[in-house]
Design brief:
This protein is of the alpha/beta class. About 40% of the residues lie in helices and about 15% in strands. The chain contains 20 helices and 18 strands. The protein binds 6-O-phosphono-beta-D-fructofuranose. One of its GO terms (biological process) is glucose 6-phosphate metabolic process.
Length: about 625
């Protein structure tokens, strides 16, 4: 029916969107009047200074709103080696090292920051004890309890954590062993997992699957993490007849995220079309009594696992959100938890040099002037860690990217994260990093073990494939530094459940500490709501457009309308551009809509529906 799609083979050109970066170096990094951060625990208000008052004067002097002067980076190899050794952090049990020597912070800077760190670390202690660290939403922040339930502020929560973990392990075992079977699978057991979720309900599981799933997992996992119909179709098509042996896990903390709901509805339709009973293969991970939880309960889904109010989406990898998908792939989740617990332990110390999360926060502060003036490029030199940057992107940017600080000052804070993997990116954008605009620092992730033991060979005398990867990382680190580009290097012995758990915990804590240093709430995401609300308004407008077109198309003869006329009749003349886009989109999708005219000159377009819907007319 649609003829508009033919007319408009490409969308109209728009002016390039200018990126108005509101963060300038002139924004004071310290606000001397905004140095206290009140936590409330239950009815009791626990005063926790994110920054102690008594140090505020010194700090204000140290940072008077101007970018701090930076001396040139140390270039003398002997001095650099001393700096490397002096600052090298090692976590023996995790096989993890952190090298911050290629970030140019000075001893004076560290001394100036010390009181702020002490205050931040103290605030983290309160947070772990159950303070309301997310004041806007009145929530505790408890992801640290997930890997050590004894830390939970009361017995009830402790029990909930332990019971959930036991239930996850039992359920995963029963699925893998075939004790729980899909009703009509030729395989006689579940062979695939289809995970439906978005943001924090997808990124952790995706990262962990890529990092840790064995080559032949007991269940293979795939993801629907968008409301793109073609993407959803692709996943379902790839499953083919294996849909009958697919366990569908729908993950949504709120239980009402539109993309996830749409994914669920699409998957349920695919099940219906294939004559399968979705409920027998569906699992929900969500907060108790959410829309999703109620749907799953009423429809009698195979299983439900809780998501807790006090665990944020982006810090939910160690909750059922991350653990169930991982366990189903045969990943040792207790080891992941153990790795995270070890890192939690290490990042509680108040000794800055011994605290790798605090060291990261220190580096971020130094490198970005505490206002996100530089981006963080995350470069793991290991294919299996490909999705680390995407995972960290949400963890860091959704946590730190805030318009207002905790005292209501407009600060437009944040820390931009992007990256992919080395050495691949050396053939993409490292050219610009080395020589172009100097607006970043790098975090290299190095993995010492190239391959499982016994599999290596020398592709030229004395040199393995992994030696090249190693050389590429070291070479890039040196070449960037030689051109005054700073970097951090985190090294792990191997990519194991333990080290991955450790890395997740390291960055969670670094974000928490850094947020306290810059006095923002890391645990809410008010900015996301604006886009969601606007999307809802677009869909509401679309319904009005359809009603107006329907009315005109039911006339005898049919009355084709210009865009102006549609906008007038919708009583939204100011929305004419959006109406144009709505019509173009519907026309491109066989929506019984006929548009005549030229796409390049929207004023020439006249539009009507191919059929009149009388029911809608009188609805
Ligand atoms: O798990 P939910 O509630 O579906 O939310 C998904 C994601 O949407 C957000 O709320 C906003 O993007 C994220 O914080 C969250 O991880």
């Amino acid at each position: 029916m649609a003829s508009f799609a033919g007319l408009c083979s490409s969308s109209p050109s728009l002016h390039p969107k200018h990126n108005h970066n509101q963060i300038t170096k002139l924004i004071p990094a310290f606000h001397k009047d905004s140095l206290s951060f009140a936590f409330q625990s239950g009815s009791k208000s626990v005063a926790v200074q994110s920054v102690a008052r008594e140090v505020s004067t010194d700090l204000t002097k140290a940072n008077d709103g101007l970018p701090k002067p930076k001396r040139g980076l140390e270039k003398d190899p002997h001095a650099l080696w001393r700096r490397y050794v002096d600052w090298l952090y090692q976590h023996k049990e995790l096989g993890l090292y952190l090298d911050v020597s290629r970030i140019g912070f000075t001893d004076e800077f560290v001394a100036e920051m010390e009181p702020r760190f002490q205050a931040a670390l103290k605030a983290m202690e309160e947070l772990e004890k159950g303070a309301i660290a997310n004041p806007d939403e009145g929530r505790m922040v408890g992801h640290y309890w997930l890997r050590n339930s004894k830390l939970a502020p009361n017995k009830f929560l402790q029990q909930q954590i332990e019971n959930t973990l036991d239930a996850i392990c039992k359920f995963a075992d029963e699925i893998i062993s075939g004790k729980i079977k899909p009703p009509s699978s030729p395989a006689g057991r579940f062979t695939q997992v289809l995970s439906v979720g978005i943001g924090g309900s997808a990124l952790g599981p995706q990262f962990v699957a890529e990092a840790l799933a064995p080559d032949n997992p007991p269940l293979k996992i795939r993801f629907i993490d968008n409301t793109d119909p073609a993407g959803i179709d692709h996943q379902i098509a790839q499953l083919g007849s294996e849909l009958a042996s697919t366990l569908v896990i729908v993950i949504s903390k709120s239980g009402g995220t539109p993309e996830t709901r749409n994914g669920l509805l699409e998957v349920q339709k695919a099940f219906r079309d294939a004559g399968l009973d979705f409920a027998k293969q569906g699992v929900a991970i969500t907060q108790e009594n959410s829309l999703l939880d109620n749907t799953a309960r009423i429809e009698g889904w195979l299983a439900r696992f809780p998501m807790f109010d006090w665990v944020g989406g982006r810090t939910s990898e160690m909750s059922a959100v991350g653990l169930l998908p991982a366990a189903l792939q045969g990943i040792n989740i207790r080891e992941m938890l153990a790795g995270a617990a070890l890192m939690d332990e290490a990042t509680r110390t108040r000794v800055l040099k011994d605290n790798p999360a605090a060291l990261l926060a220190l580096c971020w502060y130094w490198a970005t002037d505490g206002v996100g003036s530089k981006d963080m490029v995350v470069l793991p030199y290991k294919d299996s860690l490909l999705l680390l940057s995407r995972y960290l992107q949400q963890l860091v940017m959704e946590s730190l990217g805030k318009e207002f600080d905790l005292d209501g000052n407009r600060v437009n804070q944040g820390l931009t994260v992007y990256g992919n993997k080395g050495s691949t990116d050396q053939h993409a954008y490292i050219q610009q990093l080395r020589e172009g605009v100097h607006n970043f620092f790098v975090t290299f992730i190095e993995v010492l073990r190239d391959r499982p033991p016994g599999h290596d060979w020398e592709l030229e005398p004395g040199v393995t494939c992994g030696d090249y990867l190693f050389g590429m990382l070291q070479g890039t680190r040196s070449a960037l530094y030689a051109n005054d580009r700073e970097s951090i290097t985190a090294t792990v012995q191997e990519v194991t459940p333990r080290s991955v758990g450790g890395l997740v915990a390291l960055y969670e804590r670094a974000v928490g500490i850094y947020a306290l240093l810059i006095n923002i709430n890391a645990y809410h995401q008010p900015g996301v709501e604006a886009g969601k609300k606007a999307a809802g308004e677009v869909l509401a407008l679309q319904k009005r457009v359809l009603a107006v077109l329907n009315e005109a198309s039911c006339k005898e003869p049919v009355e084709p309308l210009t865009l102006e006329e549609v906008a007038e009749r919708c009583h939204t003349p100011e929305e004419i551009e959006m109406i144009y886009k709505i019509i173009a989109h519907m026309a491109a999708n066989d929506r019984a809509l006929i548009a005549e005219g030229s796409c390049g000159s929207p004023r020439s377009i006249k539009v009507f529906l191919g059929e009149c819907n009388v029911d809608q007319l009188y609805a």
